[in-house]
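Box S1 | Example of a co-folding query
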Amino acid sequence: MEINCTEKELFIFKKIAHAVEHLGMEAYLIGGFVRDKIVGRDTKDADVVCVGDGIRLAKEVAKRFNPVPPVSIFKTYGTAHVKADEFDLEFVGARKESYKYHSRNPEVAPGTLEDDQLRRDFTINALAISLNKNNYGQLLDPFGGLDDIKHKIIKTPLDPVQTFSDDPLRMMRAIRFATQLNFAIEDTTLQAIKDNAYRISIISQERITEELNKILASSTPSIGFDLLYRAGLLHIIFPQMVDLAGAEYKDGVGHKDNFYHTLQVLDNISKETDDLWLRWAAVLHDIAKPVTKQFEEGHGWTFHGHEVVGGKMVPKIFSKLKLPLNDKMRLVKKMVELHLRPISLSQEEITDSAIRRLLFDAGEDFDALMMLCEADITSKNKQKVKRYLENFELVRKRCEAVEEKDRIRNWQPPITGEMIMEIFSIPPSRPVGVLKNSIKEAILDGEIDNNYDAAYDFMIEKAKQMGLFPKSGVRDAKSQIPDSKS
Ligand code: CTP
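Box S1 (continued) | Returned holo structure for cytidine-5'-triphosphate
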C-alpha cells in the first residue's frame, strides 16, 4: 500500500522512529491520520500510539527538534501533545478499555497494539503504520479497514452493539464519517445504531452538537440528516426536524414532505457557501411549518406565519442544542423570519417602500437572504424554477436601484432612542419605542424625508397625540448625543 506523505511528514516520522528505537519501544501512527492519508484528505495532525508510556515518548521526540517544542501533558488521559513544524502530534500508550453501561468514560489498562486497535470505533479508524525499525512503514490492518475504505464502508471492528454500547457518541460519528467521506454504513452496523439510538441520552449535548456541526459542514449534509432520521437518532436529538417529515393528504390534496424539502434546501445552499450559520438557517427556515399547518377548505394546505413562529423557535432550539446565543443565532433567526419576503415581493407590483423595508430589515445580510431564497427553490418543474429565478433577479435589480438612491442597507433612522428620551425628558419606556418605530416606518414608507428636521417635526406631532411634549429648547438634541447617526 502506497501512502503519500509529504517531505515534512517523513522528516517528522523519522525523528519519532529514532526516539522509539532509542527507548526500545514500539510505536505506530494510528487512526484518523492513516485513514485520511489513504482516502486522500488533508491532515495536519497525527496520533501516535506506543506500547509503553506515551508521555515519555513525547518528551524524547520533542528533544529531537530545534528549537525544542513544549510538551503539553494530559495526565488524566496519559496523553501528550507536541507541535512539531506546524504539525500536531498526539502521543498515547496503547491501552485496553472496559466500559460501564451508564458512562462513556472507560476503565483503562495498558495493552498491546492489537488491544488498542480493537477498542477503536471503526475498521477505517483502526489502521496503523509501523514506526519501528524492523517493519518501518508497514500497514497493520487486522480488521480489513483498507478494504472498507476501498468499498466505502463504515463498519465497527467488534460486534457493533458492543462498540456503540461502549460509547454511544460513535453512532453520531458513524453517520458523520459516512457524510464526510460519502461512505455507506454497513447493514449490521446501521441496525445496531437503530437498536441503540436511545443510548445517545448519556452523551453530552456539546458533543452531539459538535458532530451535527461536522455533518453540516460536509459537502452534502443531507446524507447525514437522512441517516440520523432513518436511524431514529434525530427523533431524540432534534425532534422538531422530524416533525417536518411526511406529507398529509386531505380531500385528495397533499403538501410536500418538508423534511426532504429542507434537506434539499440545505444541500442547495451548501453548494454556494461554507458558512455554518447559513446552513443552519436552511435547516431551520421551515421549522414552524408543522405547528402552523392548517387545511383550508377550497384552498388546500397553508402554513401562515411559519416564518414568524419559526423565528421565535430559533433561540429555543439554539439553547437546547447548546449552539451560541450570540450574533450567529440572531442571523439565523433573521434569515428564518425574512425568508418569504423576497418571494412575496416578486409576486406583486413592487413599490419602492416595500423594497426599502426589505433592505432595512435584511441590512448587511441581504445577500445571504437572497442566497437562502434561491436555495429554497426546489421545484422539479423547470419552467417554475426559471420563473422564480427571474423574479429574484428582478427583486435584486430593484433593490440595487433603491439602495443606490436611498442607502438603506446600513441606515439608521435620524432620531435615536436616546434622543427621544432627552427631548421629552422621559426614561426608557414603551413610548420611546413607539416613537422611534413610527419615525422609521414613516421614512421607509416615503411619508417623510430621511433627515433630522423632517423626523423631528413628525415625532412632535405623533408625540402630541400620545400626550407627550418636548422639554423647552431641545430641538437640537442630536448635538448633545455623541456619535448619533443623523
Ligand atoms: N476514537 C474512537 N472512538 C471515539 C473517538 C475516537 O475509537 N469515540 C478513535 C478512532 O480510532 C479515531 C481516533 O480515536 O480515529 C482519533 O479520534 P478523533 O481525533 O476524534 O477523530 P479522527 O478519526 O481523527 O477524525 P476527526 O479529526 O475528523 O474527528
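The domain at 160-237 is CATH 1.10.110.30 (Hydrophobic Seed Protein). Residues 481-486 have pLDDT under 50 and may be disordered.
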